[in-house]
Design goal:
Number of strands of chain A: 1
Strand content of chain A: under 5%
Shape of chain A: globular
Structural class of chain A: mainly alpha
Order of helices and strands of chain A: HHHHEHHHHHHHHHHH
Oligomer: heterotrimer
Number of domains of chain A: 2
CATH superfamily of the largest domain in chain A: MetI-like
CATH architecture of the largest domain in chain A: Orthogonal Bundle
Number of helices of chain B: 12
Shape of chain B: globular
Radius of gyration of chain A: 24 Å
Chains: A mainly alpha (287), B mainly alpha (293), C alpha+beta (347)
Largest sheet of chain A: none
Strand order of the largest sheet of chain B: 2-3
Largest sheet of chain B: 2 strands, antiparallel
Largest interface: A-B, 98 and 95 residues
CATH architecture of the domain at 72-244 in chain B: Orthogonal Bundle
Radius of gyration of chain B: 24 Å
CATH class of the domain at 72-244 in chain B: Mainly Alpha
Structural class of chain B: mainly alpha
CATH superfamily of the domain at 72-244 in chain B: MetI-like
CATH topology of the largest domain in chain A: MetI-like fold
Number of strands of chain B: 3
CATH topology of the domain at 72-244 in chain B: MetI-like fold
Distance between the termini of chain A: 45 Å
């Protein structure tokens, strides 16, 4: 009996040890980033991350948010932060808007050419933007949309991930609901606003979080279509950050790391606070 | 479609319009364009183009740099996929098992999902910094003189490590949710039938997780091939030189930096074919899975 | 109160499957008609055609003297109660009940009055501000009824409304629905696969099988004079015993046993139908059964055994002795139904 108990305890200890090791693996690198934002650049340059906490948070934060470099002098942290929010929110909103409407048409209407529309739309799931990045760039260039928010956001929307997700979800809504609504005299528009949108609230929220994080974290596409510094997002500005490290006599670790920190903070916070929605939305799309 | 769908001619068309317009302009047009330019040679000064048939492709296949990148992509993809999948599976199994602190562990292990790949790359630069990088110093204890951006192997190692770190959380989330969807009665039945925890894992849990695992396998291959761009670009500091790079990175370097549009388009087409093959394989497997269950 | 008339109503799916073969019948005002049959027999499809949720392939459908074939469900003046209730999960009970009226642009105070009236009738007053997820199965069922009632429709449609409830609640709701229908006097069509529900609730039963109407009649007619072997075996629990028999010399025989002396049928093979409760224990009876199993049900017993090597069941009272082995029995007068051995139709 006692040996049994002891064995049980041992395995529990091992389980926790593994989980703690995993958690540390995830956290420690970012903690180092955080620690370095508190130190003067000179010390950072000499010793790198350490255990001491310095007093440079405020100056580093101010530098990161308000100091600009480059030719135009407008790519401050605040500016990049704003652009990141525009990209994240604009992308999430656009994706959900386009996806919900299309999924509604596909699931709830009897259409001619329904299967054709279905295939045209869902073929886009096969090829990520990265594969067709250059021709997409050319199209955006030809349309005169380089360095615009439309040019930044709309091409990213050009796939059917959200449509597919909402299609799956709509299909899981009991059929009788639309039948009851029809008997209750609700037409397609009324059904959409009175029944479908309120029912999908959680799913919309989950999708919003996932899409916001996805949009916020875009790198390759913004790097290509935004060349004006005023259009940079934080994530796209990472290149500037690494250049700050390389270029100067004393690399500006404090400022650069602070910018990196600001770049990860909003999406990380959203994912942590809305964890259950986010997890639900993410794993639901698998079906 | 639902049995009792609405019937209207214009409304569904209006609803589909935004989606169709966006994908027509920003998906089908570019994809067709890539396909077309892969058969043409662009004049370097922008004056027209010449049809060259398959020569863009043949020169790709004979290019040493391309096959180097292709082989690297294969190894990189395999290591990143299996590395992050196995770490995530281990953590998910443990997180599913423990009672105390389960929620805390879940949060701690998943939040890195929201870190952008290039920021992960920046963190990698700190960890492997030439003068004081903690991991670099750690390896030095074993006599490994880690040289990021100089030594081919070391650079590849850093890319892989960062890519795995970035990918563990999403795999963890899926594995954990897969584990939690295994019915309690099945676990209890297994508990009665098999006293070895390891045996139970391989005989019961692992096969039941196979659908999740397969889905993740495909997602991870796609991740390693495409979404690691930010990691690679940051780790290389935008200076590829003789360093390892993946095929997607090469498309970008050759086409955007090198202005070789035909060659880069041919590379895009090769990638498209690869992804299509992967997807067809995925659908086949899913079909088979449905047949068996 | 209104007539419903179906004339050769038919449903063919694009893949050629004929879900409902041409069906014609008239339902009189205030009547409670139950469509019963095994799953896949076309009863739900027929109901959904009447509701307008399924296109009508052929024939005409009249409700209250109006051909409604192509009308939208909302314009047919009907109300429907669904199997899984189909309540709007995000709306309160009050909104659920009033939603159909709201869509008809009925003034708010009228809606409020009607909802109050329906909720009083259904004992839902305490739950008006709850969401469906906070209600029990029976309460949800009542809300679904309320949603149908407030509309004052010409016709109620019920699609297996009780199948999600447990047995006890089902019995209770059966009585409630029936009482409510009596009180409101609204013509109703009720679909179920449960023959007990059909027998207990219906004014008239329509038995369907494989897209075809097998028989239309009152519960008593259906039970006592089933038109086909299908009806005979589907209605009643345990079902009517169906035995292979012969007509010879004007008598119907099963093996060596004569079950009917003046059979109104030509000589040859027939199917002999006998209700289990029409076989009574009789020490001097003409039949000798071999009983293998006795099921004790308290108020009565079911004996399962064979007659001339063919399976049959006997329903006896609790006072009747019951053991396995030989069992002498007689038949009640008029107990035997004869069916064509080939087509299964009543002779």
């Amino acid at each position: 009996m006692t040996t049994h108990k002891r064995r049980l305890r041992l395995s529990t200890v091992v389980d926790h040890a593994i989980l703690i090791a995993g958690s540390l693996l995830m956290i420690v690198p970012v903690l180092m980033l955080v620690q370095m934002t508190s130190m003067p650049d000179l010390i950072n340059m000499k010793t790198g991350p350490s255990l001491s906490i310095g007093d440079q948070w405020v100056p580093n934060f101010e530098k990161a948010m308000f100091q600009a470099d480059g030719f135009s002098g407008i790519n401050t942290g605040t500016r990049m932060l704003m652009n990141s929010f525009i990209l994240g929110i604009g992308f999430a909103f656009g994706k959900i808007f386009v996806g919900m409407l299309a999924a509604y048409a596909i699931v709830y209407f009897r259409m001619r050419y329904a299967s054709l529309a279905f295939w045209i739309i869902f073929t886009t799931l096969l090829l990520p933007l990265e594969v067709r990045i250059l021709p997409s760039y050319e199209v955006v260039q030809r349309l005169g949309m380089l360095n615009t928010y439309q040019g930044l956001i709309i091409p990213l929307i050009a796939s059917a991930t959200a449509t597919f997700f909402f299609r799956q979800y709509f299909r899981s809504i009991p059929e009788e609901l639309v039948e009851a609504a029809r008997i209750d005299g609700a037409g397609p528009v009324r059904f959409f606003f009175d029944i479908l949108i309120p029912l999908s609230r959680t799913m919309i929220a989950a999708m919003f979080i996932i899409m916001f994080v996805y949009g916020w974290n875009q790198y390759l596409w913004p790097t290509m279509v935004t060349t004006e510094e005023g259009m940079f997002t934080l994530v796209r500005g990472i290149k500037q950050i690494t250049q700050m490290l390389e270029g100067n006599q004393i690399p500006e670790y404090g400022r650069a790391n602070m910018l990196a920190l600001i770049a990860i903070l909003p999406p990380v916070m959203i994912v942590i606070f809305f964890q259950s929605w986010f997890v639900k939305g993410l794993t639901e799309s698998d079906k | 479609m639902k049995r009792a769908g609405f019937t209207s001619a214009w409304l569904p068309a209006m609803l589909l319009l935004p989606q169709l317009a966006v994908i027509a302009i920003f998906f089908y047009w570019p994809a067709a364009h890539a396909l077309r330019s892969s058969f043409y040679l662009q004049d370097p000064f922008g004056f027209g183009e010449t049809f060259v048939g398959l020569s863009n492709f043949t020169s790709l296949l004979t290019s040493a740099a391309y096959s180097r990148a292709a082989w690297f992509t294969v190894f990189f993809t395999l290591i990143v996929t299996f590395g992050s999948l196995s770490i995530a599976l281990l953590l998910a199994v443990k997180a599913d098992k423990v009672i105390r602190g389960a929620k805390t562990y879940r949060t701690l292990l998943m939040w890195v999902y929201a870190v952008a790949p290039p920021v992960a790359g920046v963190i990698g630069l700190i960890m492997f910094n030439q003068s004081w990088g903690p991991l670099k110093e750690f390896f030095a204890l074993f006599g490994w003189d880690f040289k990021l951006g100089v030594n081919y192997f070391d650079t590849a190692f850093a890319m892989i490590a960062v890519s795995i770190w970035k990918q563990v959380p999403v795999n963890f989330i899926f594995f954990l949710s897969g584990l939690q969807s295994i019915p309690k009665s099945v676990r209890e039945a297994a508990l009665i039938d098999n006293r070895s925890a390891t045996g139970r894992f391989w005989d019961i849990t692992f096969p039941l997780l196979a659908p999740t695992g397969f889905f993740l396998l495909i997602t991870n291959i796609t991740y390693a091939m495409f979404d690691t761009f930010g990691v690679i670009d940051t780790v290389l500091k935008g200076q590829p030189g003789n360093n390892p790079m993946t095929l997607v990175y090469k498309v970008y370097v050759d086409g955007f930096r090198g202005n070789d549009l035909g060659g880069s388009s041919a590379q895009s087409v090769v990638l498209m074919v690869l992804v299509l093959a992967l997807t067809v394989f995925q659908f086949r497997m899913i079909e088979r899975r449905i047949h068996y269950t | 109160m209104s007539h419903v008339t179906l004339t050769a109503l038919r449903k063919v799916y694009p893949n050629g499957f004929e879900a409902v073969k041409p069906a014609s019948y008239t339902i009189t005002p205030g009547e409670f008609v139950v469509l019963v049959g095994p799953s896949g027999c076309g009863k739900s499809t027929m109901l959904r055609m009447i509701a307008g949720l399924e296109d009508i392939s052929d024939g005409t459908l009249e409700i209250a003297g109006r051909v409604v074939n192509t009308l939208d469900p909302a314009d047919r003046d009907i109300a429907m109660v669904f199997q899984n209730y189909a309540l709007y999960p995000h709306m309160t009970v009050r909104k659920n009940i009033g939603y159909g009226l709201q869509n008809r642009k009925i003034p708010k105070d009228v809606i409020a009055a009607k909802v109050a009236e329906a909720s009083a009738l259904l004992n839902l007053d305490d739950y008006l501000d709850r969401k469906p997820s906070q209600l029990s199965g029976g309460q949800r069922q009542r809300v679904a009824m309320g949603r149908a009632i407030v509309r004052d429709p010409a016709l109620f449609l019920f699609d297996e409304p009780l199948s999600n409830l447990d047995a006890k609640l089902r019995n209770q709701m059966r009585i409630e629905i029936k009482a409510l229908q009596r009180r409101l006097g609204v013509t109703s069509i009720y679909v179920t696969h449960d023959q007990v529900e059909a027998m207990t609730m219906a004014d008239r039963i329509i038995v369907m099988n494989a897209g075809r109407i097998e028989q239309i009649g009152t519960p008593a007619e259906i039970y006592h004079t089933p038109a086909t072997t299908f009806v005979a075996s589907f209605m009643g629990a345990p079902p009517m015993n169906l035995l292979d028999g012969q007509i010879a010399g004007g008598a119907a025989r099963v093996g060596d046993h004569t079950v009917m002396t003046d059979a109104p049928a030509a000589p040859g093979p027939v199917t002999v139908g006998i209700r289990p409760e029409d076989i009574v224990a009789d020490p001097n009876g003409p039949l000798t059964l071999d009983i293998a199993i006795v099921e004790e049900l308290g108020a009565h017993r079911l004996l399962h055994g064979t007659l001339a090597g063919q399976q049959l069941s006997v329903h006896v009272g609790k006072d009747s002795p019951a053991t396995t082995g030989p069992f002498r029995a007689a038949l009640k007068p008029g107990a035997v139904s004869l069916f064509d051995a080939g087509t299964g139709e009543r002779l």
